[in-house]
Each structure stands twice: as structure tokens, then as C-alpha cells.
Amino acid sequence: MNQPQHQLQHQSQPRARASAATLAAGPATTGRPARADAVRNRERIVSAAREAFAEAGPEASLNEIARRAGVGPGTLYRHFSGRPELLAAVLKERVDTLCARAQDLLSADSAGAALEEWLRAFLDHARVNQGLGGALMLEELEATGALGSDCHQRILDAAGALLTRAQDSGAARRDLSPADLLQLVVGIALSTTHKQASAAGDPEQPGRLLDLVLDATQPR
């Protein structure tokens, strides 16, 4: 039995209003804008973290980093599980540069000079941001996930390749390990960075201490 005409008109009105609302709202979202927003949020968090760590060191407030990035703490923790992972993200670009330099130096004529040049670059790297680089490389990275572990291993591999080449050429003692060598340089970075913040800081001291380390690497 056919429905009365007025009932059909009454039922069609909500559908018409819904269709008009859909057209006015535009196409439905597909999730892509949300992913783009997530990428931008991550970039803002890393940028804010870079500034905060440079000013306050590795213990900079994560809430302050979130505030500078214009996001809530929950958003920060959705991108980074904690401080070590955020530190690793901040340093990843520097690690990329450092490892690329090591790769270039593997073809240098003098294996000993190549190792020395890279260790000086690593010292500069480790002293950046109040010892941030060194503290992360040899302390906190071991407790992080894939990102941090990857950075840590890449630094060890770069040092190991240069050290092995120097040892094979007779330019470095055989009983040295990459981890021991990096630990010595990180010790210089951490101890001298804090002193540089005071008026009594000696800007030449890091280089002199590294010279002593380099002298100790020579074959006996």
C-alpha cells in the first residue's frame, strides 16, 4: 500500500537536510591531514627541544619543551616515549654528519691523522649543549629504543673503523677499544663543558686533554 504523499515529504526532509550539510562541509577527511599535522608537531617538538637542551642541558623540562612547541604534554609523549628518545632525535642530525665524516676519512692517506681529526670532531660534538652529546652517546642511549640504539651503534662503528685502520697501519696501540677511546673523549667533554660556563674556564683545555689522550693511543 502506498504511503500518503505528506508522509513521503516528511521523511525526505531530514535526508535532504543531511545531504545539504554534507555538501557544505566538503569532502570527508581521509586521515592524511592528521598525518601531516603529526609530522609538523614532531618537527616543532624537536626544534623546541633543540633550543631547550641548548639552554638548560639534558635535564630541560619536557613540559617546557611541549609549551614551546605549542602542543600538550600528551602529544609530546605520543611522539617520544621519554627524555632519552627525544635527546636521540635532537642529536640524530649531528650523528649523521659525524658518521659521514668518518666515512670520508677512511680514504685519507694517513690513518693516524684521520683518527685524530675525527676524534677532535667527536669532542666538539660531545661538548655541544652542555655535554648533551656525550651524556647521550654513552649513558642514556643504551636504555632507549631503536632510534637511540642506532645512534649509539653508529658512533661506535665509526670510531671502530677508523681505530682499526690506524691499528693496522701501526699508528695506534692494539689494546685500545672504540668504547674505551670514546669514553675518554666524552670524559673530557663533560668535565670541560661545565668549567667553560664559569669565568675560570680555559677554552684551550679540551684540546690539551685530547692531545694527552692521543699521545696515549700511540704504540708502545
UniProtKB/TrEMBL annotation:
<dbReference type="Pfam" id="PF21597">
    <property type="entry name" value="TetR_C_43"/>
</dbReference>
<feature type="domain" description="HTH tetR-type">
    <location>
        <begin position="39"/>
        <end position="98"/>
    </location>
</feature>
<protein>
    <submittedName>
        <fullName>TetR family transcriptional regulator</fullName>
    </submittedName>
</protein>
<feature type="region of interest" description="Disordered">
    <location>
        <begin position="1"/>
        <end position="38"/>
    </location>
</feature>
<keyword id="KW-0238">DNA-binding</keyword>
<dbReference type="InterPro" id="IPR049445">
    <property type="entry name" value="TetR_SbtR-like_C"/>
</dbReference>
<keyword id="KW-0804">Transcription</keyword>
<feature type="DNA-binding region" description="H-T-H motif">
    <location>
        <begin position="61"/>
        <end position="80"/>
    </location>
</feature>
<dbReference type="InterPro" id="IPR036271">
    <property type="entry name" value="Tet_transcr_reg_TetR-rel_C_sf"/>
</dbReference>
<dbReference type="GO" id="GO:0003700">
    <property type="term" value="F:DNA-binding transcription factor activity"/>
</dbReference>
<dbReference type="InterPro" id="IPR050109">
    <property type="entry name" value="HTH-type_TetR-like_transc_reg"/>
</dbReference>
<dbReference type="InterPro" id="IPR009057">
    <property type="entry name" value="Homeodomain-like_sf"/>
</dbReference>
<dbReference type="Pfam" id="PF00440">
    <property type="entry name" value="TetR_N"/>
</dbReference>
<feature type="compositionally biased region" description="Low complexity">
    <location>
        <begin position="1"/>
        <end position="33"/>
    </location>
</feature>
<dbReference type="InterPro" id="IPR001647">
    <property type="entry name" value="HTH_TetR"/>
</dbReference>
<keyword id="KW-0805">Transcription regulation</keyword>
<dbReference type="GO" id="GO:0000976">
    <property type="term" value="F:transcription cis-regulatory region binding"/>
</dbReference>
